[in-house]
Amino acid sequence: MNITLESIESRRSVRSFTGTPLSDDQREALETALEQSGPCPFGSVPRFRIVESGSHAAMASGRIGTYGIIGNAPCFIVGAVKSTPYGFVDFGYALEGIALWAVGAGLGTCWLGGTFDRSGVARSMNLSPDEVIPAIMPIGEPAERRTLIDATMRVLAGSRNRKPWSELFFDNQFDVPLVDAGPWARVLEAVRSGPSASNKQPWRIVRTGSAGKLAFHLFLHEDRSYNNAIKGIRIQELDIGIAMRHLEAAALALGLPGKWERLETPPVAYMEPLRYFSSWIM
Ligand SMILES: Cc1cc2nc3c(=O)[nH]c(=O)nc-3n(C[C@H](O)[C@H](O)[C@H](O)COP(=O)(O)O)c2cc1C
After folding, report:
1. DSSP per position, 180-203
2. pTM (2 d.p.)
3. What domains are there in the chain, each with its CATH number?
4. pLDDT tens digits for range 240-275
């Protein structure tokens, strides 16, 4: 999947749409993007479906309810994944790939992990007993003006704010902020600008090694009660998958080397509520 740095840098959550249906070409391109959203770093295979807002599937499932937060979306991407230890991370990685593809195609999206009616949507996916729907995503042409509820959501989540570098990125150990990341600064900035549930920005990265043999170790600064607030869903692990996609796509776009590998023991001391997930290794 070809994702540009411009797409990563200009992405914002879009909650207000024009309502114009996707053209046949757009729909076909979206279907291809859904197919190409993997392979996922931990090997899960999420499945995705496009559900038109006024369609039979949407009706049969009691319409896709978003409590009025999403205005005029022509359709939604609904996805399911097996609830395994890393299923949510993989789902985040895959669906964020689609969100970033959408920017390049002139389409807007918004992750919805909380504000939608899960039971209604589940009926449209014929879930197997071990599958869950971690989130859904409206997709369509962005409206020029935000609806009032959209603007309010952005203010409530403080969507424009990002934590300073010193709270997110570290040099060899967690108490030393990373000051000079060289060419990797734009890659880390791509993680920082990414979306996260309630804009909590729970990703933390520690750089180790030296030039030519660097590693970036990715941790979740977990808010346990928040991460377990929705039964069966670990919403902050989606954020980790999103961060993995942003880091990987930005490195690829800049021609920087590396790949994801989960180390048995990361070479960094850490304590709860930090949880280690994976390392970008050269
Ligand atoms: C996993 C996840 C779940 C989210 N769930 C919701 C949601 O239920 N409702 C909503 O309005 N926004 C939701 N968001 C969007 C965030 O509020 C948004 O990404 C954040 O405020 C940063 O704003 P930005 O995406 O415009 O940069 C979610 C984002 C993520 C990553």
Report:
1. --GGGHHHHHHHHTS--GGG---E
2. 0.97
3. 5-152 (3.40.109.10), 165-281 (3.40.109.10)
4. 999 999 999 999 999 999 999 999 999 999 999 999
